[in-house]
## 1
Amino acid sequence: RERSYRAFLAIVDRYVVHDCDILIVPAQFGLRHAAKSVARVRQAMRSSDREFGLGVFDVACMALTNPERFATSHTLDVDMPGDDYGSNDSRPSGQDLAITMGVIGGRIVIAPIHASLATVYAGSATGFLG
């Protein structure tokens, strides 16, 4: 996961040097990993050099540019495998937390979840390299 994210940052850096106004990164909002836990998705990404987990900032930017994605509470919630919730030192042993974004009562809600939790109502957002 770390190796893919560093490669992604190198691509971003290369385009920023050239003063591009727009950077397009292939990404998905969670359908590819629907009904999989964040822990399982992170494990799958460790063996991939092309896919990396998106975090809160990335998903929030995608939500701002695609507001229809969160128009109703019947859409797939988005888990964010690119960010850990809290520091590992402050959590009890075995408590691996992740962050999710969904719609409750017409409002977008960002909340912590247990990383081993998998539901049919959520999927992990990921980005892809070249």
Note: The chain has three helices and seven strands.
## 2
Amino acid sequence: AELSPRDILGMRARFLQRGLSLKYVKNILGGSFKAMVRDAREIDRVVTLDPFVGVRWGRVPVPGPEPFSAEERSRILGWFE
């Protein structure tokens, strides 16, 4: 019932210190855990405030495309022929 944004930030920091990726941590806290807290707030009325208000997430880097080389493309097309 006393969950605060500082607690969410602390959990995020601990997960990241364990070597988990930002995307994985965001999925845990921003998905599953956030849904559980929402239910505790809206259905069970155990949590009174939304502890995720004010918690900001950095952008998750998305790797650029790595197109096939001409040789790789030829080998792939040859396999399908």
Note: The CA atoms of residues 25 and 57 lie 10 Å apart.
## 3
Amino acid sequence: MVTQSDIDEVTRQLGRPARDILAIAARCVCGKPLVVKTKPRLENGTPFPTLYYLTQSAATAAVSTLEASGYMAELQDLLATDSGVQASYLAAHQQYLAEREAIEVVEEINDFSCGGMPVRVKCLHALVGHSLAKGPGVNPIGDLALEALNWSPSRCQCV
């Protein structure tokens, strides 16, 4: 359930109005939103492929720092060489598409999930958001990025 308080908090976190939130997919240990689940097509008609969107500022800052460190290249190399990671990442992509399409089929984003899945590592924010929303073992790249962060979902860093 999404409350007006949740929407107000996400708006504050993002610094802009929250749009088309279906659910709070993950919460901070303090209860504030951490990841939102967003409609596949926004109210204004825009396709929105990112079903899970990381919103908490400390988490997004930590992911930005990790991206800037070059860690995405390491993950891309792992993806290119590890058949087990490849298979799990493809499964995460397929699950993501199925979940989004169960909400609404949006032709413009057909077969496009998030974060570069299933063959690239493009956006750790989206991949970490997916891992936080679905839990460990669903998205291997999101899980690895989450482990590498200097931030933890087990400790409140809300401002």
Note: Residues 21 and 38 are 5 Å apart (CA to CA).
